[in-house]
Every structure is written in structure tokens, then in C-alpha cells.
Specification:
Elements lengths: L2 H19 L10 E7 L4 E3 L6 E5 L2 E7 L6 E5 L6 E6 L9 E6 L3 E7 L3 E6 L7 E7 L20
Parallel strand pairs: 1-4, 3-10
Antiparallel strand pairs: 1-2, 4-8, 5-7, 5-9, 6-8, 9-10
Length: 156
Amino acid sequence: MSIRCRRAVLALAGAAVAAAASPSVAAGQTGVAASFTVTDHRFVGSQDGSSYVTIYAGQSVAFAYPAGTIPHNVDYLALKPTSCTQTAGPDLGPVPPLPRVPSGPGWSGTCRFNVPNMYVFVSRGPRSMPGHVIVRPGAPPPSFPTQPMTPLVPRL
């Protein structure tokens, strides 16, 4: 499988994690707005496949480590999220870090961010991989349903 295909698959997996956690986030609502899929070598963000995601204050980011061989976790450096919840994997103590110690695949969780800023995190496993959550102030812009428009046909 090519690198481009792998990135697309990982991005889709991350989007599926976010969709499962919160089917939709409308303007002014909080919920999971982005996600990271953890791989053996990097954090893959759901928005563009990079190690960055951008959300709005009050929203959450989901993290999942579905497959791999290297222990990882999500440990924030200077600024910490408002709260984190581990939703799968062994309970190794309070979070963050998520999970408490680097662990093999099978763990997941979410972190909520109420304060606008850039939050930098790393894995404390053998690979010190970086990731970034950018939190914007205010509410997300409104989303409009994308339904096909029916052309108007004049009556004769």
C-alpha cells in the first residue's frame, strides 16, 4: 500500500473515531470536533493527516491507538487540557497523560479544551512524537446541510 493510501486510510479511521463519538457538532455546541489516530511513528490528525488539529473552545479531541507495536500515550507539555477521559484500554491511573503510562494498542479517550491556545503533546514511549491541538476562541461557524437543490421549472 502506498504512503498516500496509508495516510488516507488513517485519516478516514480518525474521522470514524470522531464521528462515532459525536455524529455532528453544530454551531454553539460542544463535542468531539477532531481526532488523532496514533500509529507506531506519528499522530495522524483527522483534518488533514498532519500532527495538527484546530478546534474551538469548549470542544474535544478524540485519541485512539487501534493497532501497532510500540507503547504510546498523549502527554501534554506546558498547557494541559480542561479534562481528559480514557474510554478504552487498561486503567493505569488518573489522566492526563492519556493513558497514564505509555501503553500498547487498544486504548482511546477524549480531551476537552475550554481555553484558546496551542496545546503541544508528545508520546512518552520510545518515540517522542509531537502533536498539536490549536484551540480558537468563540464558536464554530454554522454548518449548512448539503442537499442538492431542485431546479425551479416555470409552470406554463
